[in-house]
Amino acid sequence: MADAPYLVCLALVNQGGSRSMPLGGRSQQQNLPPGETPEALAHVLALELLLRIWQRSDDGPLQRADGPTALMVVELQMERLPEDLPKIKADWLNSGDTAAFQAALQSITLRGWSLSIEKFRPVALNKLW
User: Fold this and answer.
1) How far apart are the C-alpha atoms of 8 and 112, rounded to whole Å?
2) Is the pLDDT of residue 1 over 70?
3) C-alpha–C-alpha distance, residues 52 and 38, integer Å
4) Which residues make beta-bridge pairs with 24?
5) Is residue 91 a part of any domain in this protein?
6) How far apart are alpha carbons 29 and 62 in whole angstroms?
7) Residues 6+ apart with CB under 8 A from 23
8) Is 123 a domain residue?
9) CB neighbour burial string for 103-124, b if at least 16 within 10 angstroms, e if fewer
10) 75, part of any domain
11) N or C: which end of the chain has fewer CB within 10 A?
């Protein structure tokens, strides 16, 4: 399990003129074969994160900061989590440069997906990289 990647769900949000990037994550139980998605865990993480974001709506209107890719799930090695991810997050919070954020995020992650939903369909993970 120590070699299993960590799964992080994150959102790019604007609220009251300020950017925020709430996130949550968990270790995966095992490495998934190439082409398979960590769908069950991604759905749990997205639900937990979206409930936290929804609670923030008491403080004012929320807006996605980058349209369809504002809600993402990424897979990364645990050693990337304590230093690399906080720096990339801080850079985005300060600059708002989403393209630079996504490039930096891609450089430290194994795989990434955006999350979307269509009427009468389940939540979908759409491969970003």
Assistant:
1) 9
2) no
3) 21
4) 9
5) yes
6) 33
7) 8, 9, 10, 11, 49, 85, 89
8) yes
9) ebbeebbebbbbbeeeeeeeee
10) yes
11) N
CA dihedral (76, 107, 92, 26) in degrees, to 10, reads 0
The position carrying tokens 């349209």 is: 67
Which tokens in the block code for residue 109? 């992650």
Total domain count for the chain?
1
Residue 8 predicted with pLDDT over 60: yes
- The enclosing H or E element of 92 equals helix 84-95
Q: Which two tokens stand for residue 114?
A: 């955006």
Question: Which residue range(s) make up the domain with 83?
Answer: 6-127
Does residue 1 lie within any of the structural domains? no
* HSE-up of residue 14 (Cα within 13 Å, Cβ side): 9
